[in-house]
Design goal:
Radius of gyration of chain B: 18 Å
Largest interface: A-B, 52 and 50 residues
Shape of chain B: flat
Order of helices and strands of chain B: HHH
Structural class of chain B: mainly alpha
Strand content of chain B: under 5%
Mean pLDDT of chain B: 88
Oligomer: heterodimer
Helix content of chain B: over 70%
Mean pLDDT of chain A: 93
Number of strands of chain A: 0
Distance between the termini of chain B: 63 Å
Number of helices of chain A: 6
Helix content of chain A: over 70%
Order of helices and strands of chain A: HHHHHH
Radius of gyration of chain A: 19 Å
Amino acid sequence: MPRDTVRFGMWVFLASEVLLFAAMLTLYAAYRMRFPVIFQHGVDLNNRTLGTLNTFVLLTSSYTMACATHALARAQRRVTLLWLAATAALALAFLAFKGVEYTHHAHEGYGVYALNAAPPGLRLFLVLYYVLTGTHGVHVLVGLVLIGAALGRVARNPAATSQHAPWLDLIALYWHFVDIVWILLWPLLYLTGSPP
Amino acid sequence: MTHTSPHYGYAWAALVLLAGASYGAAHVSLATWAMPVALAIAAIKVAVVLTRFMHVQRDHGIGGWALVTAGAFVVIMVSLVLLEVAWRAEP
């Protein structure tokens, strides 16, 4: 299949993903308009340091993934493997930090199993927080599996180049999209709390 | 950096700087401008990722058209929902 056709298919898939996240972000925007102060309080409950750390992790992982595709295009197999391993490590770090954050929420009484105990407006924020970050987390997990599969395939093929492995380009597009979603979630869920 | 294209490094540095700007803006009292400023900086970061890492301008711009179409639908959906919320009559 021609490379342009495959890339176009991936762009259409990503466009459908845009609509999935847009539906959830629309709900967030609508409820934030209805309950602005409660949503600001909800943002204050989140750990800004961990959220910022995860932003740095994902931005860096986009860089390492771009470097991996660049190296594969130049048939630098070992370098490709190193960049892919770095990307996978960063994806794991993101999920680990997210896990720490969810655990903190559970200890503070705002865990996913304690949502019914939260006041109604705050409950809306927390439900949207868990749905948005949970859906994004599943995308990170899928990306991690794809990156792991790419690592295996490049490692097994001594003559690997992007000509023989166009799928790495597609995995990279997907991974950058996951990064873009977090770029939008970070200010909405961590930075726009009560005025300083 | 010898095995990679330098412009990826510049793009990463720009993204980190912009993230710093987002973090800094969150610690300044911007009142009603806090959300627009946060989203504007996020939009610039998205543009950097799209153009520098995803090369959306390649493929004769066809990927860009797919995203523009999705973006237009998103704008219609978000606008209609927010208009309804803003103008909803209280019982």
